Amino acid sequence: xxxxxxxxxxxxxxxxxxxxxxxxxxxxxxxxxxxxxxxxxxxxxxxxxxxxxxxxxxxxxxxxxxxxxxxxxxxxxxxxxxxxxxxxxxxxxxxxxxxxxxxxxxxxxxxxxxxxxxxxxxxxxxxxxxxxxxxxxxxxxxxxxxxxxxxxxxxxxxxxxxxxxxxxxxxxxxxxxxxxxxxxxxxxxxxxxxxxxxxxxxxxxxxxxxxxxxxxxxxxxxxxxxxxxxxxxxxxxxxxxxxxxxxxxxxxxxxxxxxxxxxxxxxxxxxxxxxxxxxxxxxxxxxxxxxxxxxxxxxxxxxxxxxxxxxxxxxxxxxxxxxxxxxxxxxxxxxxxxxxxxxxxxxxxxxxxxxxxxxxxxxxxxxxxxxxxxxxxxxxxxxxxxxxxxxxxxxxxxxxxxxxxxxxxxxxxxxxxxxxxxxxxxxxxxxxx
Length: 433
Prior knowledge:
The chain is mainly α.
């Protein structure tokens, strides 16, 4: 297949994924709805302030910001918040900054963002299709699209004011560049590209800091020096990531006047991963009104100082509990994983992971299998080390698993034909790009 026809195929895959998401969104009646309660209105609040030039933070008293939520019962809790503008480090920057860019172009148009989010998720599915095609050809790419369109989770989060779509796209891009480096060798260009994607991934979700050690064990030689482990190129990748995310980490330290480059979110939420509250909620995240929050609120400090105190207090509280309850720590780690991986209501969530494991065995010689396997394993380990989010932490790896399954489904018949003809089984040749 010619390169122009391949590119056209991927354009059509993107169009199909994007068009399907938009049609579902319009039919659901949610196109013009305000952001969802919880994370959604928080991201809207930050983006609104960035758009108006105040900075990355909240202003719960702004009457213009409050208007779309007034009179709707489900927003009573957020409307009960009152504070003038203050900066925050609790949320990662990528999604609110991108949302503020949409507001700058289209005004505070909720429909515009939902459509942009559909495009972002379509980009993630298309990148997964590219990965699948590089393993087993264009039929695998088309099958990747068809399977991805059956995922309720991908369909639902594509339309929400959440970080899932951009995290899914960035993880797919990181994986694609790492697979290319593992297969063909590391180059400076690939290292810079994968590093920039990795930095954007960390800006979309802080938890992905826990997958960065995968970089150290990725296969692939250094093409410029014929080095087996490509340490210099991996260092370039990491440096490029730091160039992207580093300014944000520096900003957090300056805002908090404390060495918390990742912000306060991790520390504040630690008791929901390990401790009596975590056991009570079976290792799944839930809002935590206690564990020092009332006592610190009673001090009537400014919001930023209060957040730092709460994060530090809960970090120490959790670490003390973990030291004295090692058996419960192990039990909670297992609980986090089982909660996150448990099947939901659709076939994709029920069968995708076991089918991907089988696909990995079928395609065990492909660099894509090893890179995707390392990323999925590190994601599961990240869940074990934090808490379950009801399947949300595993959502970004869904397109990667689908790509692996689709490639195996296409490759197995081809292998059978080769064996029937008396030829040795081998991976389908990668189509030229």
